[in-house]
Amino acid sequence: MASPTSATAWGSPVAELAKQVTPFTVNISGEHLDHTQTLLKLSPIPGECYENSLPDGSRKLGLRREWLVEAKRVWEEEFNWRSVESQINSFPNFTAPVPVNEKDEQINVQFLGIFSQNPDAVPVVFLHGWPGSILEFLPLFTLLRDRYPDSSQLPFHLIAPSLPGFGFSDQFPSDRNYGMEDVAFVVDSLMVRTLGLKNYVVQGGDIGSRIARVLGNRYEHCSAVLVNYSPVPPPEGFDVTTLSAKDKKGLERGDWFRNDGSAYAMMAASRPGTLGLALSTNPLALLAWIGEKYLDWTDPLAFAQDQTLPSGARYSRKLMDEIIASVALYWHTGKIHTSFYSYREAFALNGRAPPSSNAQFPVMAPKKVGMMWFPYEVIPTPRAWIEKFSNLVFWREEEVGGHFAQLEQPEVIARGLEDFIKILQEK
Predict the structure, then answer these.
(1) Nearest-angstrom CA–CA distance, 346 and 207
(2) Keywords in UniProt for this one (predicted)?
């Protein structure tokens, strides 16, 4: 997690740009935290079986029991939620009523907002995915804060909202189905109507990348898109034998995800009501459900495997701490059941992920697209495929990193963002 620093060291919204914005402080009640500790202590972990303790040490059949035993102990005995709150609150936090449709029905959206005093600062909105949150951006924002301690030198306005139904933002109204196009409307409304920030850039991964494509495709004030996830189908007749060894390995990773790693998504797409009700009953169940995804989707090279379980298996304590913090945020905000709505669009109900989930929103000239390619992404996609649906002006292949790139490689993301913005500013 990021190191806490005074939030007042950086800028706050200029009054004329943010008349409806209210400062926000994260503060979960002590009673709720005590209740969580009681639930953890009373929650049993079943015994060993073949599926949760495979002799080969793998997670081919799901989360390993011994990891969950240790993570439960750490959450009960060592994890400090107040420290996480301090890290979030070290940045300027706000809430604002934001329209969810043209009728001006509103929900409250919470966001981190770091506003530069530089008149040429470029607005950048960062969009997390599932099971992500604003916590993903704390290492990146900390890095940028340290790099630009004088907010008048900061070349960006940095905005990171909790998406509707996630974290400290309100859920969508329950009167109808809401999806990614509705989220894009909310994000654009936050940036343009609420904050007055036009010609903004959007950065995202996972479902954040799909929202980014909707924004780039449909909204005039979104001038550019920088993503680190972009699953699209190959151009018609594409010869896969022409791909590089790195791309072929990436396609194998995508096959693994679709065939062996996407059962959770089928459940979220087809039975989100049941899943949300079940996972909302117990923090340990939520830890198992979300923890598996972080372990499978992060690059092992991004987190040092510095601890040993009783079996001798190695694991990363830093990653475990990040996982517990992420799960705790979902648990303390009570939002796991309202976070599954994106899967009804991203996954067909026939057991396969539709390749058009991003392709249906191409981002072409005059808009500009940047792509940061990470080898341990769940669906690494070849450049030639992405170019079919993008005015691709920036491409960077990284050697280390996975699905949670902002968390795994904040320095790499920061450098990519700075270089992408320079391209946008070239005459």
Answers:
(1) 9
(2) Hydrolase
Q: Where are the domains of the chain?
A: 1-427
Confidence of residue 355 (pLDDT cuts 50, 70, 90): very low
Residue 149: pLDDT band with limits 50, 70, 90: confident
The class of domain 1-427 in CATH terms is: alpha beta
What tokens were used for 341? 């709505």
**For the packed helices 30-42 and 65-77, what is the interaxial angle rounded to 10 degrees?**
140
Q: What is the mean pLDDT of residues 216-238?
A: 95
What is the rounded average pLDDT of the residues 343-362?
65
**pLDDT greater than 90 at residue 254:** yes
**pLDDT at residue 359, as a whole number:** 81
- What pLDDT is recorded for position 193? 92
Average pLDDT over residues 299-326: 96
Which residue pairs, CB below 8 angstroms and at least 24 apart, start in 168-174?
A: 168/24, 168/26, 168/95, 168/110, 168/333, 169/107, 169/108, 169/109, 169/110, 170/107, 170/108, 170/109, 171/107, 171/335, 171/338, 172/100, 172/107, 172/338, 172/341, 173/100, 173/105, 173/107
As a whole number, the mean pLDDT across the chain is 92
Cite the active site residues: 206, 343, 403
pLDDT of residue 18: 60
Closest to 228 (Cα-Cα) out of 204, 251, 207: 204
Q: What is the pLDDT of residue 4?
A: 39
* pLDDT over 60 at 378, yes or no: yes
* Contact predicate 421/230, CB 8 Å: no
Taking Cα atoms as reference points, which of 200, 199, 224 lies closest to residue 368? 224
